[in-house]
Amino acid sequence: MSPRIPKRMKGCPVHGGLAVPEVAARHLDPDYRPLFGINHPGRVNNCLINRLCGNCGTPLSSRPGGKYALLLRPADFGRGYSSEPALHPSDCAPYAVSACPLLNGRLASYPTRRRDLEAERCGDPECDCRLWTNAPDHQERAGADASPFYAAIYRQEDYRLCVGEKRGRQGVLLGVAAAGVESLSVKLVTKGDPSSLDFARALLFGLPLSG
Ligand SMILES: [Zn+2]
Ligand SMILES: [Zn+2]
């Protein structure tokens, strides 16, 4: 059964019982299946820059005492940022954890396979999908499916973007900073199948490996 869609995500299109996250790539025609799990770079940057939730697309809290959540793998703690936008901690982050097969553990039992995005083009010349390619940055997560995930909660006053080098280009917007920012809590939400490197990172960053 599909998890209940939080009120905050009621503006999102729904496909197969699941709310389509704000950042997901999609076709112009809403009847086509959106690309759950494949982010649209323009949508991601819009959320990051405007402090919008990556799931519902509405603003994160900017009130004193307001919070945001990041869903992080041990590797993300290592590199010091989340390439995914922040989420509303009380509803959008838990929804992502229960709805996304990468996070709810269902994908871990499936063989890793790269998606052929070019084959998913709908043929509408106005649709964004004509630009979809099988470039490596669209496939970043392939092979990383079994990683544990953590929900880390931060104060909204601490929200900072991380800009740096990516594939030889400087000044690229990388995501929301997770290094040099004190989290209010870190909880293991997806046990996954940690690699020995993940174990080492968990030790290094003081992350729990059991819920
Ligand atoms: Zn299309
Ligand atoms: Zn949200």
Tell me about this structure.
- The protein is α+β, with helices and mostly antiparallel strands and 211 residues long.
- It contains four helices and ten strands; from the N terminus they run E-E-E-E-H-E-H-E-H-E-E-E-E-H.
- The protein has a three-stranded antiparallel β-sheet. It has a three-stranded antiparallel β-sheet with strand order 6-9-8.
- The longest helix is centred in the first third of the chain and has 10 residues.
- The chain is globular, with a radius of gyration of 17 Å.
- The two termini are 23 Å apart.
- The mean pLDDT is 89.
- Bound molecules: zinc ion (2 copies).
- One zinc ion binds next to loops.
The distinct bound ligands, ions and cofactors come out as:
zinc ion
Identify the strand order in the major beta sheet.
5-7-10
Radius of gyration: 17 Å
Q: Helix tally?
A: 4
Overall spatial form: globular
Question: What's the end-to-end separation, in Å?
Answer: 23 Å
Number of extended strands: 10
- Helix-strand pattern: EEEEHEHEHEEEEH
* Range of helix content: 10-25%
Structural class: alpha+beta
Mean pLDDT: 89
How would a textbook summarize the main sheet?
3 strands, antiparallel
What is the total number of structural domains? Answer: 1
Estimated share of beta-strand residues: 15-25%
Low-confidence region ranges? none
